[in-house]
Amino acid sequence: MTEHTDPTGVRIELDHVSKVYPGSKQPAVDDVSLDIPAGEIVVFVGPSGCGKTTTMRMINRLSEPTSGRILIGDQDALSIKPTELRRSIGYAIQQAGLFPHMTIRQNVGLVPGLLNWDRSRINDRVDELLDLVGLEPAQYADRYPRQLSGGQQQRVGVARALAADPPVLLMDEPFGAVDPITRSTLQDELLRLQGELRKTIVFVTHDFGEAVKLGDRIAVLGQQSKILQYDTPQNILASPADDTVAGFVGSGASLRQLGLLRVKDVALESRPSVHRDDSAEQVRSVIAGSDYDWAVVLDDRERPVSWVRETRLRHAASLSDAVEHLDVVSTQSTLEDALEAILAEQHASAVVTGPVGRYEGVVTLDTLIDTITRLRSEAGSS
Amino acid sequence: MSTATETATAGAPATTPAERIRLFIQPVLVLIVAAAVVFWAFDRDLTATQKENINAGNVATLIWQHLLITAAVTAIVVLVGVPLGVLVTRPGAKALRPLFIGIANVGQAAPAIGLLVLLFLLTARTGFWIGVAPIALYSLLPVLSSTILGIDQVDRSLMDAGLGQGMSRVALLARVELPLAVPYILAGLRTSLVLAVGTATLSFLVNAGGLGILIDTGYKLQDNVTLILGSVLAVCLALLMDWLGGLAEFYVGPKGLR
Amino acid sequence: MSPRRAVAVLAALTLLLTACGLGSGSTVPLQVGPGSIKPTPGLEGVKITVGSKEYTEQVILGYILEYTLAAAGADVRDLTGIVGSRSTRGAQLSGQVDVAYEFTGNAWINYLGHEKPIGDTRKQFEAVRDEDLARNGMVWLEPGPMDDTYALAASKRTVERTGVRTLSEYAALVQRDPAAARTCVDTEFRARQDGFPGMAAAYGFDPARAVTPILQVGIIYQATADGTQCDFGEVFTTDGRIAALDLAVLTDDKQFFAHYNPSVTMKQSFFDAHPEIAEVTAPVTAALTNDVVIELNKQVDVEGRDPSVVARDWMVSRGFVTAR
User: How, if at all, do strands C183-184 and C232-236 pair?
Assistant: First the structure.
């Protein structure tokens, strides 16, 4: 999920943290202990009302814990002045929360301003960040939030959270209020940024699919923020800890798992291949000599262009009369894409091409089923 | 980045074309009507009694006094109403809200003459400030309630975003809550201004001067010229204040909200 | 006329009458019996509507007139308390009100339209009597001594401090030291030619130099008595507060201010029909002095008593009528 650059983020440790609201019997957050590694995205996921947002908000003390310790990069969060603490933690919320009476520049430069950076340094930083989130500074910096679309406002929200280059980012369903297409784009953006910056990000969502896509680790939280399972997405998908987690993961876990692996991660099989300018006779004999009743047709650069079935070849005069259209997947494609291709073709396999489009082999349905089984057993034993 | 789905909405101003036309026409009309009534009053054979009031020096003085009273009332109303409104919206000060709104309500419901005479009896003094203070109390409610409304309507998520980024409560108030409340405060101020100008026609009763002298003299002596002169000028002044309020709403409000 | 129409016409008439603010009057508030005023044959059972303006003094005078006529045996209707002096006059001219006490100076200036009053009391009365009869057919009976006019007053302390007791001395003080002669006035007095400007001209001081804070007429009395804002104040010579606040009235030594003596007035036609009214009312009118009226005003305005009771009690104390 993330590239291997040095992390700029720091470790966060929640040590028996609880939150009890005055006058209520049950704690909203009950004795949560969690270790968030530096430079990773940890997603808090759970049903509404489970306390995931409250738990996150205790990290920057928007909600004060009633007991427990919170360490941010080995510093006790409860010993620093809250306003000072929050200026070193990026904060992005669902409605973006951009101040409507301030320009984009003023919004993004808010925390640097609070930290008394000098004007030119702030301006440079704002330009840099707007570039980073894909908004051209010359065009957008002096506009007002209401002149931007929802997706653009969310990008600004992210830029704002990154402005003072904090080691930690807290994100509370930041992509929840936009349409699915924009959400997907923003998620890709975040992953790209994280690849470059490697901050420690605590991300709250109720959408498990988002959690799988973004998280290095996922904390599935139940009532009162109890940790039901804290593990990598693969492990949770492969082996949910209990029925609640399984219910949350929902159906389609297997498909999701396939989405996490690429074709190059699994074994390929070989199938007969012939060339475009081979004669029909030659092709018939290749097929006859194999265990299969079809062949991949390659061009002179060994790239798959079509496929041919023995039955159609029987009565054809030349190869070109018998070939059929072929869809291919590359070694970079996910197994989910491979499954899609397998289901679409009629030969129960997906033809795989390598880096320059050369035919490498096929991936079969059996291989995919074996892979899932293997993942489950690996997760079960871990 | 696909730009197809990200169409930026054009910045639409908060005022309609009709309001902007009015902003331009109102002062012009007011000046025309005021000039007309002054010309009408002065350009006739006035009795000696009428000339006591209808002379350039006196009318100018009365207009000036009326403006001073209105300015003082405005200043008091803003300096008292806005901080009170802010105070009453602070967490923990909820109990104070009905108290101060109640006082402002009483101030507006009570007849202004009563307030003026009461203040005189309490202080045994007359003059400018005795004429100003009751009018200020009378005109307080719109500014107080609009300040409260303006601050209350600030989106909670903005407050959360501000606090979350490390703004202190004071900074939040000064840089977020108040600027966003300004359009509402200005709207309330506009109402207060017009109330003040109208009620300031009573300030003369305690020696604060103003156009009320023309109105009262005209009424008591059944002198329509003086009466009309005073009333029309007072109305013109009120419309002028309304215009100034409209200008303030248009220009002083935060640009991002227009 | 169909019944429905009749009702409609009646409703419209009632609406019209009440819209004018005047009904047909009510009964006399208190019953009185004869005293020195005895039942007079010519007035027995005669319907007489008595009117007055709405301020205290006029209301008291109105009630006094009602009790006088009632004791003489007339069937009196009470229309005291009409708002606005124009309205009362209009009611008299139109016949809705038969008799009312009016003031000589008021008629001279406001009804007959003269700017300058006549300095001599008797001459003023005669001028009004003659002109109002000639122009409007209104009859004026012999006036009383009471003179409810403008005056300047001061607290006793101010009088002792400045030594000013007359308007001439006041004028000299204004010329000398305007700041020591702050004179609180109301809008009307400040503008009227029979008010401050005329007084300044008569007494030879420059009104522009004088310091004249403008106050509501009601609070001038208190402010003058306090002495902090006003050294002198405009007063009406028969106002009850003069006694209540112990104010000293400056003498109008040049006789500038108009004279407002009370007379019973009525239309010529009414007088010709009932000339006995003159004899019956004469002794009562003659008893109306400034001191009497100040006292009666004080009882109503300052002590809060009911004017109808105050009027009756005075008439009883003078033996004009007896209480019932």
Answer: parallel
